[in-house]
Amino acid sequence: MAVPVFSPPSAFTVYVFVVLGLILSQAVFCNGGLTSNFVRKVENSVDMPLESDVFSLPPGRNAPQQVHITQGDHEGRAVIVSWVTMEDPGSNEVIYWKDKSEDKKSAQGSVSKYKYHDYTSGFIHHCTIKSLEHDTKYYYQVGIGQNPRTFWFMTPPKVGPDVPYTFGVIGDLGQTYDSNTTLTHYERNPVKGQAVLFVGDLSYADNYPNHDNTRWDSWARFVERSTAYQPWIWTTGNHEIDFAPEIGETHPFKPFKHRYQTPYKASNSTEPFWYSIKRGPAYIIVLSSYSAYGKYTPQHQWLEEELPKVNRSETPWLIVLVHSPWYNSYNYHYMEGETMRVMFEPWLVQHKVDIVFSGHVHAYERSKRVSNIGYNIINGKCNPVEDKSAPIYITIGDGGNIEGLATNMTEPQPDYSAFREASFGHAILDIKNRTHAFYSWHRNQDGYAVTADSVWVCNRFWHPVVESTGGRA
Ligand SMILES: [Fe+2]
Known about the structure:
Elements: H1 11-28, E1 34-35, E2 65-71, E3 79-85, E4 93-98, E5 105-108, E6 110-112, E7 115-116, E8 119-120, E9 123-129, E10 137-142, E11 149-154, E12 165-170, H2 177-188, E13 195-198, H3 214-227, E14 232-234, H4 254-259, E15 275-279, E16 282-286, H5 298-306, E17 317-321, H6 338-350, E18 355-358, E19 364-367, E20 370-371, E21 385-386, E22 392-396, E23 417-421, E24 425-431, E25 436-443, E26 453-458
Parallel strand pairs: 1-23, 12-13, 13-14, 16-17, 17-18, 18-22
Antiparallel strand pairs: 2-3, 3-9, 4-5, 4-10, 6-9, 7-8, 10-11, 12-24, 15-16, 19-22, 19-23, 20-21, 24-25, 25-26
The protein binds fe (ii) ion.
Transmembrane segments: 12-34
Domain Purple acid phosphatase C-terminal: 390-449
Protein name: Purple acid phosphatase
């Protein structure tokens, strides 16, 4: 029997294989949209030490700290002011006045404390100031009678279809050196955001032993430089759950609920985790990935009743915030958003939602307008298809948290994915009028004015053309 003998390949054979290999490797990247080839230094993200200047205490005994504001009603004429005093409760009063006015008004809030394992919080104050005028600068003061501190904010313009308004978009921020870079880039972006749409995962205190809640305090001091001056619209992420029965903590969302308020009752919601607001030309719907959303649950019922209420002649821009993404081509959090997508996606397409912002995956991705609602288990239509009525899905969980970047992507890039890159950053949604908004994403490695991904977004109700897939400006 003849024994096969290995003979070395000829130079020509090697050449053919090399050329074939190059062609195939290119083909892998030609399936979907653009996977950015931006190369960054990949390092672990490290939390800033507690003695960092970004966490410093305000001067004076019992001075109010961790000051933050959010919208306090459905229309944008109320603001919830929140702050913490450490030594004693102090005053619950907020004094506020219009710019250039001597007429000072006062509102009374409430104060509470909570315990979490062996941690006891400071005195947490919340006070809603109401009946504000639109498009007006207000000053406000907290810590009355002790060491008061003064801040200011702008109220939004009256709700209407063609009032321009600019939102910042930040997710999964945490309190690392990268988080600080992200916030600085947002603050110094020449296109000034007027309010932040925050898509969940705030402090990452639960990464510490016993969910060390002093990291909830430090986070609130870190972001105060923005949150005291413009409203952050809060979405809850998995790092807000803080469910830890092993240390006796069996009430989910306990620290978040005490520290951060949302105007959920104004939109007939029964929990602070899902609600809606109008702000200028936008109708913002916030959903909770970590509250029940199956049929017959309160969140399901609320959303079903909520979507038909949106009047696009009043608020043309319909935007949804939800922590766990429904479309995600990174190899992280596989299928975590899938059950909610199955429940709610048909409604979002039916009601022509413009954009869905999510976090959770620590990277950036923007989808084309696609839907995956034709599948009925047996018809085989289980792949997303281009759909003019569908939202753009944007994953922006790239704020800079301690868990680091999600760098591992599925290959090839799926058809629905228009642009993806594993870098930290933030986004700006600059609504111009009822038909157009300029959306841009900004990575931390670039200068403040640089746009790393952008697209002119066309409103689904007033101008439902399919956008060019965008890309780097
Ligand atoms: Fe998350």
